[in-house]
């Protein structure tokens, strides 16, 4: 197994996390972390732990500081991705077992895109660590539980070799951004509870009722788009979907299904570009179907995301 770093020291890096993220630029997105659809069911179902936190504008500098005391595992994830939630569950279990000798920092790529960019994440899930303020690459994608545990065991050895052998106690436990979240509106809470149960149809119905009451409810619109994406990808055979996409390059439904998989896998720009190309070579009802799906995916990613802004311009060129 390849190790996360050479045993005797930290890997060289051109990225200094103390200055990599412009925290003032995150202020406009601070409230996005409270979106109901942006809280994965796996996290909600897990037992609370002071050593598992959501990264926010307020907590990020503290986490970097704490990396001189304990290794900080940074979990870059997409809440709508089953793969992300699967890896998150394993990471949380290991960190709870470590009992203060390791900290897990969960990062929602939609709510915190600049933190993701600071770590140069190419897809989800991506797991890196911070030791003494420096990034230590771990792994990308879904791995067997035993292999994830092996990577974290190796991380502890790297931390120890660099003198990071502390334990978080009551005085150094980081504040959790999740505890500061305001209560959800009733229909949003109903949708979130349904997501926890895996009942995406009920969640979608709750969001639709919320939109019927308040058509301008942006969070309900984004939540509905995310839940509908979950419904479309639940239980699909990824290899079969991608093979069909290769066999039917002009098939609208085949291409949209592959775009869904790209987005869930964190390949946002690939998903956007696939649909924009489809819009450019179709007409009539097929073009409108592709256009509407792309707008739905914009809502999933977040309309303020720079990748969405870029894709909107490309969509306009494809249409006109």
Topology (elements, then pairings):
Elements: H1 17-20, H2 23-26, H3 41-45, E1 52-54, H4 60-66, E2 72-77, H5 82-98, E3 103-108, H6 113-118, E4 126-131, E5 134-140, H7 145-161, H8 186-197, H9 200-213, H10 218-233, H11 238-247, H12 252-264, H13 268-280, H14 284-301, H15 306-319
Helix pairs in contact: 5-7, 8-9, 9-10, 10-14, 11-12, 12-13, 12-14, 13-14, 13-15
CATH-assigned fold name of the largest domain: Glutaredoxin
Strand percentage? 5-15%
Strand order of the largest sheet: 1-3-2-4-5
Fourth-tier CATH superfamily name of the largest domain = Glutaredoxin
CATH architecture descriptor of the largest domain? 3-Layer(aba) Sandwich
Q: N- to C-terminal separation? A: 51 Å
Q: What is the N-to-C succession of helices and strands?
A: HHHEHEHEHEEHHHHHHHHH
Overview in brief:
The protein is of the alpha/beta class.
What does this structure look like?
- This protein has a 5-stranded mixed sheet with strand order 1-3-2-4-5, with helices on both faces.
- It folds into 2 domains: 17-180, Glutaredoxin (3-Layer(aba) Sandwich), CATH 3.40.30.10; 186-319, Alpha Horseshoe (Serine Threonine Protein Phosphatase 5, Tetratricopeptide repeat), CATH 1.25.40.
- The chain has 320 residues and is an alpha/beta fold.
- α13 (268-280) packs parallel to α15.
- β4 (126-131) and β5 (134-140) form a beta hairpin.
- It has 15 helices and 5 strands.
């Amino acid at each position: 197994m390849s190790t996360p770093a050479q045993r005797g020291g930290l890997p060289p890096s051109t990225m200094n996390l103390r200055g990599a993220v412009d925290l003032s630029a995150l202020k406009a997105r601070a409230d996005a972390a409270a979106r109901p659809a942006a809280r994965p069911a796996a996290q909600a179902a897990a037992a609370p732990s002071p050593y598992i936190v959501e990264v926010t504008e307020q907590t990020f500098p503290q986490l970097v500081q704490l990396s001189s005391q304990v290794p900080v595992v940074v979990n870059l994830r997409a809440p709508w991705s089953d793969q992300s939630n699967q890896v998150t569950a394993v990471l949380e279990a290991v960190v709870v077992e470590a009992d203060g000798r390791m900290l897990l920092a969960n990062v929602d790529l939609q709510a915190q895109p600049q933190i993701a960019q600071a770590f140069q994440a190419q897809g989800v899930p991506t797991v890196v660590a911070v030791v003494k303020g420096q990034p230590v690459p771990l792994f990308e994608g879904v791995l067997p539980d035993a292999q994830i545990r092996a990577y974290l065991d190796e991380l502890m050895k790297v931390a120890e070799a660099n003198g990071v052998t502390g334990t978080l106690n009551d005085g150094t436990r980081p504040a959790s951004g999740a505890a500061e979240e305001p209560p959800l509106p009733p229909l949003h809470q109903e949708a979130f509870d349904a997501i926890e149960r895996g009942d995406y149809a009920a969640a979608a119905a709750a969001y639709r009722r919320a939109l019927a009451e308040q058509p301008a409810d942006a969070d309900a619109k984004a939540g509905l788009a995310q839940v509908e994406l979950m419904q479309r990808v639940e239980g699909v055979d990824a290899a079969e979907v991608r093979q069909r996409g290769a066999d039917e390059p002009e098939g609208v439904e085949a291409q949209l299904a592959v775009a869904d998989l790209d987005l869930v896998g964190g390949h946002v720009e690939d998903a956007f570009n696939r649909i924009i190309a489809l819009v450019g070579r179709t007409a009539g009802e097929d073009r409108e179907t592709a256009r509407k799906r792309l707008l739905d995916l914009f809502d999933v990613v977040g309309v303020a995301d720079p990748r969405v802004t870029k894709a909107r311009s490309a969509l306009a060129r494809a249409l006109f």
